Amino acid sequence: MGLDDKIANAAEKAAGKAKEATGRASDDEGLEAEGRADQSKADLKGAGEKVKDAFKH
Questions:
Q1: How many angstroms separate the Cα of 3 from the Cα of each of 10, 16, 53?
Q2: What is the pLDDT of residues 26-45, one digit of tens each?
Q3: Full-prediction pTM beyond 0.70?
Q4: Average pLDDT over residues 13-18
Q5: Res 53 pLDDT > 70
Q6: HEC states along 32-45?
Q7: Rounded CA separation 9/11 (Å)
Q8: How many CB atoms are closer than 10 A to CB 18?
Q9: With contact defined as beta carbons under 8 Å apart, do 38 and 46 qualify?
Q10: Cα distances (angstroms) measured from residue 49 to each of 21, 25, 33
């Protein structure tokens, strides 16, 4: 996994955590769910990159 990909995934995950926390604090279930979805998407991208790396070696 390239460094740029790792940084982008970490940023997306952090943004998702922030959305989730903001949604929880403001009692906005939609925003909270969107934050969790963003985190999941970042995790899936990271897993996909690890699989690609495994096949490169």
A1: 11, 20, 12
A2: 999 999 999 999 999 999 99
A3: yes
A4: 97
A5: yes
A6: HHHHHHHHHHHHHH
A7: 5
A8: 12
A9: no
A10: 27, 33, 24
